[in-house]
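User:
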Amino acid sequence: MEFFNFHTHQSANQSNVLELVNQYPHEFDAAIPFYSIGIHPWYISDERLESDLKIIEEKLQIENCLAIGECGLDKRIEQPFENQVLVFEKQLILAEKYKKPVVIHCVAAFQEVIEIKKKLKISVPMIIHGFSKNSQLANQLIAAGFYVSFGKYLLRNPELKSVFQNVPNDKFLLETDTIEEGIQQVYDLASKYKEMNLKELQEIISSNYRDIFEKK
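Assistant: Predicted structure:
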């Protein structure tokens, strides 16, 4: 593995990239080699909830399913927040049961996510994907045991440079999410911001990958 793409919605299918492709239970594609699977707060369906959770639980028992998610909380959508919390907690309980890391979508609900982790005593790694906020919040999340993943906003927003530079090297991952740029472009910028060469960055990401995905 030269590059690890922690979160993407489309597979680039490159031999030197390990991709964690986001999957939804009702649209599962068995052809994708490695994936996460979860109920995104945008796509919660009360009618489908039990069947979606059942599919997720089945897939979590398969080795190629590396994580649960993306799942989480989003205060800027119409889906009732209490319902989002319920669905998020059900998935965290499954993550804990099957010892799988969690890919988290969080919009304007970071304190609630921190509190839920604490309340449920979640011990598996939890990673905030697509981080775009300030150093204060990044530090708070890291202190609470979270990892943070950077991608789209790192490329788009120069103000994230100092935030990213201040994140400890053992607490971050890189991703492309829905952008057209490849993961190599994210690595190139990240290595520049961290003032290290590409090989050093690759070793850091590989080490973080092992800590998150290979420790049981």
